[in-house]
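Hey,
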Amino acid sequence: MDIPFLDRWRKRPATDAGGVWTDPEGVGELLAECELLRVRAASEGLSLSDDGPEDLAALDQLLPRWRDDPDELDWLGNDAGLYLGTVIVRTVPGAHWGPGPEGPVVVMASGREVDVVTAGRQWADTGAPELSQIYAEVSES
């Protein structure tokens, strides 16, 4: 099957000598999709259209019905982390996506790397730390 964006992703996004992705906007768009999270939120009456910090607080209030399905739990946790990263990158000056050892991370202006995917999986599994709390902590640093 020929799906162009998947073919590009499978090849791993190209990085320059400094380890920065050469197409950060394209990578950011791909990471921002978070389809399962958006569908789950919409089914609960929550629109994630502006990708802002207030959406994170609203997600924290959802009933965790996804915990009944181990497959959905992992996928939704991954999406939650990518959504958290998307909000950080779009709202915190100097933050950008970068390649990490286990997948994408958010690199803050200070150089600090935030493993948002692990944070999203923890949130989906246990509800803590809350997505809005993680955002508040990293946006202050």
